[in-house]
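Please complete every field before forwarding. Incomplete forms are returned to the sender.

SECTION A: IDENTIFIERS
Entry label: holo-73
Bound molecule: zinc ion
Molecule representation: SMILES string

SECTION B: INPUTS
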Amino acid sequence: MKDQIDRANELAEKEREFALAKYRQKQTACVSLTDCEDCDEPIPEERRRFVVGCTRCIDCQQDHEHRLKGYRK
Ligand SMILES: [Zn+2]
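SECTION C: PREDICTED COMPLEX
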């Protein structure tokens, strides 16, 4: 019985660690992505440093902003 409890605790501990790691990963993703989330092209490091939290390359970001404003091509 004791073993079962230990194993359950171990599992809960692992789950917590996993959730934490996922949370941290998400936070890192909020800073800046290395690849554009729309077209998967690498985002230049200069742009990533300049635009904190950018997740798209320049082209896709412009497209995205146009879409947000309801702009139709
Ligand atoms: Zn892109």
